[in-house]
Design brief:
By secondary structure, the protein is mostly helical. It has 13 helices and no strands. Helix 4 packs antiparallel against helix 5. Keywords: Heme, Iron, Metal-binding.
Length: about 240
C-alpha cells in the first residue's frame, strides 16, 4: 500500500500540473508580478493560512490533527509581515481577500464538522510548491523596488526556521497516521478540492493580470488604441 503522502501526490497530480501551468503561477515563479497583483495574492493566502492554522490549533486534541499542529511551519505571520510592509499598519482593512472566501469557509466547516480532513489542506499548503513559497522573491523585490527582503519574506522562506526539515517532518507525520482505506480516500478527495481552490485563485488573478496588461497597452505610445487615429489622419 502506498504511503498517505504518495497517495495524495498521485491523486492530485493532474490538478497540481494544471495549477502550476497557469500564466499567473508561471509569472509568480519568475518574479514578474506588479504590486497590485502581488498584494492581492498575499492577502488571499494570508486569509487561507490564518483560517487553517486557527483550525489546526482549535483541534489540537484531535488524534488526527494534533500531530500536524506544527507552529514551526505556519505562515500566517510571515504573510502578515509582508502585507504590513507593503500596505502599512492598517494592512488588514485594505488587503483584498475576496478571492478565497469559498476556501476559507470550507476550512471553517471542516474545523467544526470534519477536522480530520484538515490534513489534506495542511499537505497542500505546507508540503507542496503550490502557494508559491520559496519562488520569485528576488525577482518580485527587483520588480517592485523593495529593499532587501522586505515584503518578500513569504516567498523566500517556507517557515521561520528550517523549512526543508519541518516539511519533511510533516510528510513523515502524515505517513504515520493510522487511517483506514475510507479515510485515506476521503483525504485524497479533499486534497484535490484544496488544489482546485489554489488553481481557482491563480485563474482569477491571472484574468485580472491580463486585463491590467491590456489597459497598459492601450496607453503606451504607439499602442493599438492610437492606430485608428493615425489611420484617420492618413486618410484626411
Amino acid at each position: 500500500m502506498n504511503t498517505l503522502t504518495e497517495l495524495l501526490r498521485q491523486a492530485t497530480a493532474h490538478e497540481v500540473r494544471a495549477a502550476l501551468s497557469t500564466p499567473f503561477a508561471q509569472r509568480l515563479a519568475r518574479g514578474e508580478l506588479d504590486r497590485t497583483h502581488y498584494m492581492r495574492l498575499l492577502a488571499n493566502l494570508q486569509a487561507l493560512y490564518a483560517e487553517l492554522e486557527w483550525a489546526l490549533m482549535w483541534n489540537r486534541q484531535h488524534p488526527a490533527v494534533g500531530p500536524l499542529c506544527l507552529p514551526e511551519l505556519w505562515r500566517n505571520e510571515l504573510l502578515q509581515d509582508d502585507l504590513r510592509t507593503l500596505l502599512g499598519p492598517s494592512w488588514y482593512s485594505s488587503a483584498p481577500r475576496q478571492d478565497t472566501v469559498a476556501q476559507v469557509e470550507r476550512l471553517g466547516l471542516l474545523c467544526d464538522e470534519a477536522p480530520a480532513l484538515l490534513a489534506a489542506h495542511a499537505w497542500v499548503l505546507y508540503a507542496t510548491d503550490l502557494p508559491g513559497a520559496s519562488q520569485g522573491g528576488a525577482g518580485i523585490a527587483r520588480a517592485l523596488g523593495l529593499r532587501g527582503k522586505e515584503g518578500t519574506v513569504f516567498l523566500r522562506y517556507a517557515t521561520h526556521l528550517d523549512g526543508a526539515s519541518y516539511r519533511a517532518h510533516l510528510l513523515d507525520t502524515l505517513d504515520q497516521l493510522r487511517l483506514d482505506e475510507r479515510s485515506r480516500e476521503a483525504l485524497a478527495k479533499e486534497a484535490r478540492l484544496a488544489v482546485r481552490g489554489v488553481h481557482a485563485l491563480f485563474e482569477v488573478l491571472g484574468r485580472n493580470l491580463t486585463a491590467a496588461q491590456e489597459r497598459r497597452e492601450r496607453v503606451k505610445p504607439g499602442g493599438w488604441w492610437l492606430r485608428p487615429l493615425a489611420l484617420a489622419r492618413g486618410m484626411s
